[in-house]
Amino acid sequence: MNEDNGYNQLISHVQRHITLTSAEIDYFTSLLRTRKILRRQFLLQAGDVCKYESYVVKGCLRAFYIDRSGQEHTLHFAVEDWWISDFASFFRGTPATRDIEALETSEVIQIDKASLDALYKEVPAFERFFRILHQNACVAQDERILSNISMTGAERYEALLKKYPQFAQRVPQKHIASFLGITPVFLSQIRNKLSQQ
Amino acid sequence: MNEDNGYNQLISHVQRHITLTSAEIDYFTSLLRTRKILRRQFLLQAGDVCKYESYVVKGCLRAFYIDRSGQEHTLHFAVEDWWISDFASFFRGTPATRDIEALETSEVIQIDKASLDALYKEVPAFERFFRILHQNACVAQDERILSNISMTGAERYEALLKKYPQFAQRVPQKHIASFLGITPVFLSQIRNKLSQQ
DNA sequence: CGCGACGTTGATTTGCCTCAACGATTGTGG
DNA sequence: CCACAATCGTTGAGGCAAATCAACGTCGCG
Predict the structure, then answer these.
(1) Which residues in chain A touch residue B135, judged by CB atoms under 8 angstroms apart?
(2) Which residues of chain B have a pLDDT value below 70?
(3) What gap in Å lies between CA B29 and CA B8, rounded to an integer?
(4) How far is B165 from B30, CA to CA, in rounded Å?
(5) What does the alpha-carbon distance between residue A20 and residue A28 come to, in Å, rounded to a whole number?
(6) pLDDT (0 to 100) of residue B102
(7) What share of chain A is helix, strand, coil (3-state, %, to 5)?
(8) pLDDT (tens digit, 9 = 90+) per residue, A19-73?
(9) Is the pTM higher than 0.85?
(10) Is the distance between the Cβ of B187 and the closest atom of strand D smaller than 7 Å?
C-alpha cells in the first residue's frame, strides 16, 4: 500500500506477540502519532523530558550520552522494527541524560506516557506485549554487559559483525567505536589487522 | 511472625507495584516453592535449563559466566528483595550459559515457567508486575553498560561504592572485580591508591 | 574550489593484565 | 587441637591493550 503510514508495520510487530481485535487495533492507533526526522536531527535532547517511546518504521537512530569531557558514548542503535527512548526519563518524568539523533532520514511512530497508561488500562494485553519486549531487551543487554566485561575491543567488534553483519556498513565507524567502548582510532587499527588475514 | 516462610516479604514486594485480592494472593502462593541453599552451593549450573525465577528472601547470590579460558565473569549479584535467574534459558528453555551460586547461606522463593504462564493467564496483573520489574532492570542495565563503555575500572569501582555502599563489604573482592570487568590484582591496586588520599 | 568531517597511520603514554612471590586467614583431616 | 593445604588479598616487575596526540589523504558538501 502506497499510502501506508507505517501503522500496519507496527501492528504486525505487536501481533507477533499478542492478539488484538480490530476495535483494540483502532483504539491503539488512535493514540499514536507519526513523525519524520531528517538526518542529524534530534528526536530528544539531554535535559528535556523524554515524552515518547518511538517505534522505528524506517531509518536509523542512535541514543548517546555525552560525558563531562565532551565525549559521546553510544548506548543504542535503532533501525526498522526497533523501539528507542530514554527509558529512565520516560518512566519517571525526569530530565533525559541522553540525546537521540537520526543517522538517516527516518520515520517513527510515537506514543506518549499518558496514552500508554491509558492503553494498559483499556487493553491489558499490551502489558504483556511490553513485558515481552522488555524481557527480550534484558536478555540482549545482559549479553552486551557480558561482552563488555569479558572481551577485548577486537573481540567485541568481531562479535558485532557476526551478529549484525548488515549493520556495520550502515553507520559511521566512529559511532560503532563509541558503541563498543573504544576509540575510532583503535577501531581503525582493529579493522586494519583483520583485513590483513 | 516466627513461622513466616518469606511469602509475606515477597507479597509485599509484589504489592508495591500491583494490587491483589486475597484469592489472587492465595493462588499466587500456591504456585511457589521455597528453597534454602548453603553457601557455595549452586542454584543453577551452566548447561542445565534454568527452570525457575528465584526471589531472594535472605542471603546473597551471584550469576556468572565462565569463558573458554576458565575465567569467571560476574553478571549479577542478588540480595534480599531481588530476583535472579538465567533469563534467556528460562524463557526459551535453552541450556543455561551461566552458573548461579550462593555466596551466603540463602533462602529463595521459586516459580517455574509453567506456573508463571498460568499465573499470567489467571491473574493478568502479574503481566504488569513483571513488565515493571523488567523495565526497571532495563534502566539499571543501561546504566551499567554506560559505565562499562565510558569509565575506567577505578571510576566504576568508586561509582559502585557510592551506589551500594553496604555491598562492598558483603562479598569477596574478587567477585566485585569480575563484576566490574577488571582483575582482582588491579582492584587491589585501585583500593590501595584510594586509601592513600 | 575550499572547508570540514571522517578514516587511517605512526609515535608515545596510560590503563590494565599476567606472572610470581608473600602474609594472613580459613578450613580440613589426622 | 594442631598441622597442613587452600584461598584470598596484597605487592612488585614486566608486557600488552587501548588511549592520546598529531599529521595526512579522501570525500561530500556549501
Answers:
(1) 87, 91, 130, 134
(2) 1-3
(3) 10
(4) 36
(5) 10
(6) 96
(7) 50, 25, 30
(8) 999 999 999 999 999 999 999 999 999 999 999 999 999 999 999 999 989 999 9
(9) yes
(10) yes
Instruction: Give the integer Cα–Cα distance in Å for A157 and A76.
Output: 15
User: For residue A143, what is its C-alpha cell?
Assistant: 549479553
By the 8 A CB rule, do B84 and B63 touch?
A: yes
CB A45 within 8 A of CB A26: no
Alpha-carbon distance B166 to B106, whole Å? 18
Q: Which residues of B touch A138 (CB under 8 A)?
A: 87, 134, 137-138, 141
- Chain D footprint positions (protein CB, under 7 Å): 8-13, 17-22
pLDDT tens digits, one per residue of A120-156? 999 999 999 999 999 999 999 999 999 999 999 999 9
> CA Rg, chain B, in Å?
18
Query: Which cell numbers in the block locate residue B93?
Result: 528453555
Single-letter amino acid, residue A94: T
Size of interface A-B (CB pairs under 8 A): 96
Q: Which residues of B touch A (CB under 8 A)?
A: 65, 67, 71, 73, 75, 87-88, 91, 120, 124, 127-128, 130-131, 134-135, 137-139, 141-146, 148-150, 178-181
Rounded CA–C1' distance between B148 and D7, in angstroms = 29
* Helices and strands: H and E segment counts in chain B: 9, 8
Report if CB B41 to strand D is under 7 Å. no
User: Between β-strands A106-112 and A33-37, what pairing exists: parallel, antiparallel or unpaired?
Assistant: antiparallel
pLDDT in tens, A155-173: 999 999 999 998 889 999 9
